[in-house]
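Homework help thread (please don't just give me the answer)

Our assignment gives two proteins as sequence + structure token strings and asks us to describe the second one. The first is just a warm-up. Here they are:
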Amino acid sequence: MTRRSALSALVAAPAAASLLLGGCGYSLRTSMPPGINSIHVPVLVNKTSEPGIEDFITQALTQAVVQSGRVRIAANAQDADATLEGSIVEYRLASLSFDSSANVTSYRLIIGLALTFKDLKQNKIIWKQDRIEERADFQVAGQVSQTIAREQVAVQKAAVDVARAIVSFAFEGF
């Protein structure tokens, strides 16, 4: 099993648990146009070589919308007032630090998204961002399985953080 396929297999269940347990901790005041009470969030398009990342980043985004309490999630675009759609345009691991033997001891995970928030009733783009980025750092453990688990946690953290930032931007205009 490759490192990437092992990561994909390990991510699904803990990502869901992490997202359900991670609360926003703040209240949002909406600046959305009147009449937007429901949002459809289709699965993001994965334009990276990282398999399966679109599922849990979309899940994190959907959960952040739900936790905001400002709108409900619509199962499809026909039942929604607005849609938040886009793609994952970057998934990159960058080496941050090395030991005395030049082995990597920590990484930075970078996730980049391109998103469009559209009012479906007015057929009008509310906002569009070609690049929203989030980062999460993690240490490399001695064994490959420990490194994969730490990367998994970093991916979950970055997904939750970027989802919260997007919802804050969408609802508060930041």
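The one we have to describe:
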Amino acid sequence: MMKTILLTNKYTSTPLEIIQSVLPDGFRLEMLDEVNRNVLLDKAHLADYILASGRLKIDGEVLCRTVNLKMIQRTGVGLDSLDLEAIKTRGIPLYVNQGVNADSVAEHALLLILACLRRLTVINADTKNGIWKKQIQGTSTRTLCGRTVGILGMGNIGRAVAGLLVPFGADVIYYDQYRVGLETERKLNIRCVDLQELFETAEIITLHCALTEETKGLINKDSIQKMQRGVIIVNTARGQLVCENDLVAAVKAGKIGFAALDVYEHEPLSNLELTALPNVITTPHIAGVTYDAFYQMMHDAMRNIRLFEEGQLQEIEQYRLRIGGKK
């Protein structure tokens, strides 16, 4: 009998073609007809495996609707859509794809940093509108070489960003709950500082930390007040790390010189004040979704599910999230 993988999202076109291309033999894919909680609840009973994708919450109510659920596989690494306590209580094994899209997100973060420094969106619009003031426009931009970049979170993505910054000659500082090893710091030429120093000294702040109770609203009017005037803020992590209203106010006041966001408090993006600002760059939560990263993410997720079904747990042990679930 074929096993059912319930994908908690809806894909069409190229993304769906990629998923179907890596679907293992002996499995069928069930997607949501519409991405909403009621549809997820209605289809939960079909799941032998849940492939958790997107922002719909996998909680106790969803899990109570399942009948034959063996395992939950997260397509990426973010856990804020998963009720870990409910999963633990029911003893359901949970697997993630640690680091699978780190390079993709890091490249996007670097792209946004450079776009902010060079005021790309503003100058692009000016040029298309016939404004040609080479010296004035050019001297309103900055180079990355010599700038102090503060990285909040030094996990897989944070380290990838730091590695990309090495050839640019930036001065990179970081804050993380857990300091990386001295060898890694030397290799990446990075320096660990406390949060206060990072806020006060970084000219560019790029966010790469998980969303937790401690980090929610980390960028707010109080933390912004500590920053240098004209600071650049880049967020490719989680939208709720930033209080958008405080960011908008700071951009309008000139405290924040430029901001670039790939994630938002509410998605899809609906904050009209944010989108109206010429010195705010917005992208649609796309940092980790290049063709290459999406293929690898789905390939690895399906591989984990297949190996779990075959009982080859030793092959996927490194992807297991330890929350107390039984094997």
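TA reply:
I won't write it for you, but here's a hint about the kind of observation we're looking for: The mean pLDDT is 96.
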